[in-house]
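Collaborator request, handled under Task 6.
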Amino acid sequence: MTNRMKRPLRRAPIRSAYRVKTVPVALSALSALLGPAVLPVAAQAAPALIWRACPSGQGPARMECTAIEVPADWSAPGKATIKLDLARLPATDPSLRLGSVLVVPDGGPGIQGVLSSAPESFTTLRWHFDVVSYNPRTSVAGRYLPPSCGVPGLPLNDPRDRAAYEAQAAGLERLVDRCRQDDTTGLADHLDSDSVARDMEEIRIALGQDRLTMLAFSYGGVPAAAYARLYPGHVRAAVFDSTPDSTVGWRGMERAQLRATEAAFKRFTTWCAGDDACALRGRNVRRLWRELIKSTGRGPVTYASARLGEIRLTDLHLKALARLVLPIPEKAPEFAGALLKASKGDFAWFGEQILGVSASWSSPGAAATRCPDGLVRLGYEALVSDRRYSERISRDFGGGVGIGLEALACSGWRHRPVNPPRPLPVGLPPVLGLGGDRDFSVTELLVSKIPGSVAVRYDGPVHVVYLRAKDTCVTGYADRYLTKLTLPSADTACARVP
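Structure tokens returned to the collaborator:
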């Protein structure tokens, strides 16, 4: 950062809609319209970071903390600023140290949640690198945004005509406009992945690195890809772990995603046929599923919640929840029980989950975080077209999450897009992709766009395999690449150890 005078932003309390308990979301992205961005002048200097021991009880032994100040709006760097918390696990052998690896988390819960939850995952990497991560602006926004940005969103009904779509979008737009009007910082308009990428460039400069070495997890791969687009000459290496392909958007990923969902449903039905824990054991599960989506497609089921409001459930909602839940084996008994109840007319589980997802995903603060990244197309015509496209691919699950429910969540964000899906620049170094059963197909799609790159499949339904698989095969390939820039051969896979 330069020594220009800046006005620090006052932290404001926020009632976060993100705390609504919902189904765990794999590759959750509330995304919308995008467009070309004007690049600000890159930072010319940044003060050296001063690392200190983290507060007591915060993180593992030897973890150090600091903070960096960045503009709320990179096109106006002389105005208001925000602070991003950083933490690092120092290299264990200074004589072998090659530099720093920047961990790019999934927008939250932030750095302590990454380095504290799985410090053992970085043991080998720390022979050669400081492992650094941070709370991105999307994670710290709650400190600065007004309460109106954190209010719950509206129930996301499935519009059956243009009038219903526009009425719902207008209601969501009013929430967004109130948030933007109350926000005196301007931060609500700059929570896109391009802004996050520019923060990453400031961190690179402050770390004193000529080029950045990145380890990006889940949706953190979107700002990591944005960084590669904005600063291709500053990329040394990048691992994309369980990340979506932001170069094509959700429609471009739909075929690969639906293949993964169909495979997950097959595993679910196989489990159901042989385990007494399945409430549907002995039933034809696929036939039951098709009957449910057919009936709700023809006649929506109204569900009212005293806590979250009222929703008219359709096949879109059932498919969306199936696509979120099926890849998670621990959810199988709960999902089977919900299907059994729904077959008897009780849709309470589906109603509560969809209302919870609606409140969280369409909150104005959440919309400001994801919608400017443009992974979904907006407008009633796009919704209808994308849904039909998806349903042609998969009769049972097409039209569910990204091009259905997530597109509805972003329908009220009617502002110029910032980071539209488009090709990455030529000349990037080869990268490594990692992914389990849930995410490999879309991660492979991304890394295939960069010549010489390789994706490693992990045999298991794990999201973010570097941290959660606890598998030395996975971490071994990643650590070797980050250290020596050596990639495994194509079609490399890591078998799950029982």
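The cover message to the collaborator said: "Confidence is low (pLDDT under 50) at residues 1-43. The first helix runs from residue 111 to 115. Please let us know whether this matches your experimental observations."
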